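Inputs:
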Amino acid sequence: MMPELGKYADTVLSAYVASIALLGLLVVVSLWRGRRVRAEMKEIEERAARNG
Amino acid sequence: MIALLLRDLKLAFRAGGGFGLGLAFFLIVTVMVPFSVGPQSALLSTIAPGVLWLGALLACLLSLDRLLALDWEDGSLDLLATAPLPLEAVVTIKALAHWITTGLPLVLAAPVLGVLLNLPVAGFSWLVVSLLVGTPALSVIGTFGAALTVGLKRGGLLLSLLVLPLYVPTLIFGAEAARRGAVGMDTGTPMLMLAGITAATVALLPFASAAVLRVNLR
Amino acid sequence: MTFSTKANALWEYANPKKFLATTERVLPFFWASAAACLAVGLIWGFFFTPDDYRQGATVKIIYLHVPAALLAINAWFMMLLTSLIWLIRRHHVSALAARAAAPVGVVMTLIALATGAIWGQPMWGTWWAWDPRLTSFLILFLFYLGYIALWEAIENPDTAADLTSVLCLVGSVFAILSRYAVNFWNQGLHQGASVMRIEAVTGGDTQEKVSNVFFYPLLVCIVGFVLLFVALVLYRTGTEIRARRIRALLARERVGA
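Outputs:
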C-alpha cells in the first residue's frame, strides 16, 4: 500500500508528520480550552442563577 | 510646542534621563563585533555598514521604553492629553526629542565607530547620510511602539517584540544604502526608498500613535 | 431597501448570543467536511499521484505547503478585516474573531516554513536560504507573535481589542513594505506563485493532463484547509466569547458580594 517514495522517503514523511502533528496540536489545544471555558461558564451561570 | 520640546530635552539631559546610554550601548556593541567574528580587517570592512546600522537600531530601541513611561508614571501625560495641543503633535514632539537625544548622537558617532570596523573610506559619507535619513523613522516607529505598551508594567520586552518587525524595511534599505556606498555602487534606489519610508512614517504614524495613546489614557 | 435589510441581517451575527447559537449549529458540518476534504485530498495526493520527473516524491509536500502558506497570509487579512470592523462598528465578536484567528495563522505559518525547509533541503541543498519568500514568511511569523503577545499582555479586554486592531492595521502596511524591501534586498531561489500555473512545478511544457494529476488533489487540500480554518476560528471565537462572559459574570459576583 505504501507508495514508493524512493530516496525522498524521509523528506516527504517528515513533512507530513510535522504538519499533521502541528495541525493536530492546534485542534486539540483549541478543543481542550473550549471545553474548559464552556464548563466554567456553565458552573458560574448556575451559581449566579442560584444566588439570584 | 517648543516649550514641550525643550522640557523633554532638558529631562533627557538631566542625570538619570538616560541620555548617552544609547551612545554607550552603540559603542559597546561595535566593540563586541570583532570579538565575535574575528579581527580580520577584510571581513570587518565588509560587514561594517550592516553592523553599524544594526547597532544604531538597537541603541534606538534601548531608550524607547523611557520615551513615554516617565510621563505616564507622574501623570503629566494625562495633562498633555487634556492640553489644547493635539495629541498627534505631542507624540511628534516626543519622537523629535527622542531623535535629538538618541538618533542624532548615533549619527555623529557612527563614523568614529566606522574607523574601528575598517569601514572603506567611500562608505563614511553614505553611512552618515543613510543614518541621518533613516533614524527619524526609527524614532517615529518607536514612539508608536512606546504608545502601545505605555500602560504595561513589563512592557520593555514586548516593546522590542512589537517594534523590531516594524523596523525591518528601514533596516533593509538603510543598511543597503550604506553597503552600496561603501563598495562604490549606486545608492539611488535604497536612499530613495529610505527617504520615502521616513517621510511616510513621520507624516502618518503620529496619528496611529495618538489614537493608541488615547485608548491607553481612557 | 432589501440590501439594507440583508446587511442588517448579517450584522445580527455580531450579537454574541446569536453567534454562539448559529455556530453551534453549523460547526459540526464544518468539522466534518474539513476532515473529509483533508482526508480525501491528502490520501489522494500521498498515495495516488505520480512522482514529478524532476522533484521526485518531494512534490507530494505541495499538498501541505501551498494550502498552509495560502492560509498563513489570508488569516492575517481576515484579522485585518475583523479589526477594521471592530474599530468602525464596535462589534465585540469581530475583535474576538481576530484574536481567535491569530494562533491559527501562526500554526499555518509554521507549517509553511517547516514544510518549506524540509522540501528545500533536497531541492536547493539547504534547509534555509534568505530567499524573499521565506524571509517574508519569517517576518509574518514575527508579526503574529507580536500581535498575540500584545493581546496577552493587556488586562482590559476593550483596550486590548483597540490596541491590537491598530497594531494589525499598522503591521499590515509594514508587512507589505517588508515584502517589497525583502524582494529588493535579495532575488531568490523560490519559484513564483505556482498554484495557478502548476506546470511551473511539473517542469515546463508537460501536458495539461499531467499537471491536473497534481492540481485536483491540491485543490481538495486547499478546500480542506480553508474549511478547517473556518471551523477553528468559529470554535475559538466561541471560546473567547464565553471567556469574556465569565469575566463579566465574575465581576458582577464581586460587586454583588
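Remarks. The mean pLDDT of chain A is 86. Chain A has one domain: 5-50.
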